[in-house]
Specification:
With 568 residues, this protein is α/β, with parallel strands linked by helices. It is built from 23 helices and ten strands. The strands form three sheets. The chain has a five-stranded parallel sheet with strand order 2-3-4-1-5, with helices on one face.
Length: 568
């Protein structure tokens, strides 16, 4: 007799042998017991998780001579014909190669005929999502009202590609990935039955590489047995699967902990000489650091795979990194994995990633420094927003007094008093240096050259207060002029300042308690600002009461001020 592959030989023949899908087998068994047999089923889930096997078990359960039963005998003629694929009542259709409307039309013609030997005529449509739109439409009516003797069982790995009109007419069962422990248990049973010596760590590594698929696990075991000569060891499994192995991973993590760049490069050269795939190397290294990340976050957790490392190794290696470093390393390994796919020199991408990891202390400190700077800037912005919010809340509280004055018996409206800021903005540290003063003068000159007289008029009421590493500070008066500057001119002043300086600084507006002294305003600026005329009446020409009224209007109706020079 010809050799039969393990995944065919160990295919489950009843619901009790179905591994990792107890929720499906229990539901189907209860439906058969109660006689609630549906006319259409949709089995969805990853490859190798038992969808087609479950479909055949259900077919045997319905057509067994002792059935319908939840335990098909696998001995009667009906069960044997289904197992051998020769049943005249069970049709297995591969939708990937029979996906057109013509095949579905033929199916619609055959469903009318009664079963030949069994109780039901069963159609198993594998990879049903491959059918064309026209084929789905042709199947729709038959699927909705099939003859009483017909049962459809459709299997797919991509249920989202099955039209909703098809899914709504089926009982859907979602198959999940099989756990490493369940796969390991089945592999252990297989090698014991075959009288093959196999180490537990070798079987567990095969279970990990199967990625939740029992068929993949049995196929890998089949290959490893052929190589192992009745003695399956971890070394043989690593050799066949192209794994870098625990020893190499331990050595690499050790040199990364020591920040030994030369040692990391030597290990990369060693693994390349052994012919290992660099994509596989990065994948295993990422899985290893995943285990360290989980350990640092929550300790040793049952059911979490740590890539076959012992507890003492995990604790020792995790102690050499902080949680932030481990997370950054995993991200960097993922980036390197993407680079390897498209790089003409994959080795360079791997070596660059490992060298960066060796220098992760300096990189993490740089990231932390940048984060602190950004946090300081954000804190300043938040403080400004809180000050503005406090101002608005004060205005709302005082608004009741304004309304009361409007309804006095005399009918006279009381003039609103000027509203002052309740909370002062935080003071930003800045120094007036020669370079800073020169850059500010160039900024003012740029506005003069551009003829921006209104901006210059506003800057006349402001004071340059210095620069620091990330900001330059400008003192602005409280009230409407300061608000006008922030709303209309702040972004432009910041842009011109950075343009003439070649830097990238943020403009911080600091509220002044007193107006700037005349000596703080350059004389050439005063001389070049044209005097206002009757046609150019500015906000600075308002008296205190009028400015207070304008403040209230802006707070109530919004700050959508439009300057005449912006109107086209």
């Amino acid at each position: 007799m010809a050799y039969m592959a393990l995944y065919r030989k160990w295919r489950p023949d009843d619901f009790s042998n179905l591994v990792g899908q107890e929720h499906v087998s229990r539901t189907l068994a209860n439906a058969i017991k109660s006689g609630r047999i549906g006319h259409a089923y949709l089995f969805s889930g990853p490859r190798g998780t038992g969808k087609t096997s479950t479909a055949k078990i259900l077919a045997k359960a319905l057509n067994c001579e002792k059935g319908p039963t939840i335990e098909p005998c696998n001995k009667c003629a009906a069960c044997q014909r289904i197992n051998s694929g020769n049943s005249m009542d069970v049709f297995e259709i591969d939708a990937a190669s029979n996906r057109g409307i013509d095949e579905i039309r033929d199916l619609r013609e055959t469903v009318k005929f009664a079963p030949v030997n069994g109780r039901y005529k069963i159609y198993i449509i594998d990879e049903v999502h491959m059918l064309t739109t026209e084929a789905f439409n042709a199947l729709l009516k038959t699927l909705e009202e099939p003859p009483e003797h017909v049962v459809f069982i459709m299997a797919t790995t991509e249920a989202h590609k099955v039209p909703a009109t098809i899914q709504s007419r089926c009982q859907r069962y979602d198959f999940k990935r099989i756990t490493v422990d369940d796969i390991y248990g089945r592999l252990k049973k297989v090698v014991d039955d075959m009288n093959i010596q196999a180490s537990d760590e070798a079987l567990r590594m095969i279970a990990i590489k199967a990625d939740g698929g029992m068929r993949d696990a049995l196929s890998l075991l089949d290959q490893c047995i052929a190589l192992s000569e009745q003695n399956l060891t971890m070394e043989r499994v690593q050799q066949l699967l192209g794994l870098v192995g625990r020893e190499w991973l331990d050595n690499l993590v050790d040199v990364l902990q020591k920040r030994d760049a030369a040692g990391a490069l030597n290990l990369v050269g060693e693994i390349i000489r052994d012919g290992k795939d660099l994509q596989q190397v990065l994948g295993e290294l990422g899985m290893h650091f995943r285990g360290l990340m989980i350990f640092k976050a929550a300790g040793l957790i049952d059911g979490i795979d740590y890539y076959s490392q012992k507890d003492d190794f995990i604790k020792k290696q995790a102690s050499g990194f902080t949680q932030e470093q481990i997370i950054w390393i995993i991200k960097r390994l993922h980036e390197a994995s993407s680079e390897v796919k498209w790089s003409p020199q994959p080795r360079i991408a791997v070596e660059a990633a490992l060298l960066e990891i060796c220098q992760c202390d300096s990189r993490m400190s740089s990231v932390t420094s940048n984060t602190q700077v950004n946090a300081a800037v954000d804190d300043g912005r938040i403080a400004q927003l809180e000050a503005k919010l406090a101002h608005v809340m004060g205005m709302l509280r005082n608004n009741n007094n304004v309304n009361a004055a409007a309804s006095t018996p005399t009918g006279k409206i009381r003039t609103a008093t000027p509203i002052k800021n309740i909370t002062k903005q935080p003071v930003v540290r800045a120094d007036i240096t020669e370079d800073g003063a020169r850059i500010w003068q160039k900024t003012v000159d740029a506005f003069k050259a551009a003829g921006k007289d209104q901006v210059l008029a506003c800057l006349k009421n402001c004071s340059f207060m210095g620069i620091n590493e990330t900001q330059f500070v400008l003192g602005i008066p409280a009230g409407v002029i300061g608000g006008l500057f922030e709303r209309l001119y702040k972004a432009k002043v910041e842009e011109v300042f950075n343009s003439v300086s070649g830097m990238n600084l943020q403009l911080i507006c600091q509220e002044m308690t007193e107006p700037p002294k005349p000596k703080e305003i350059p004389e050439d600026i005063q001389e070049n600002i044209p005097p206002p005329n009757d046609d150019d009446f500015g906000i600075e020409d308002l008296d205190e009461v009028e400015k207070a009224r304008l403040d209230v209007a802006i707070d109530v109706f919004g700050d959508g001020l439009i300057h005449p020079e912006d109107i086209k």
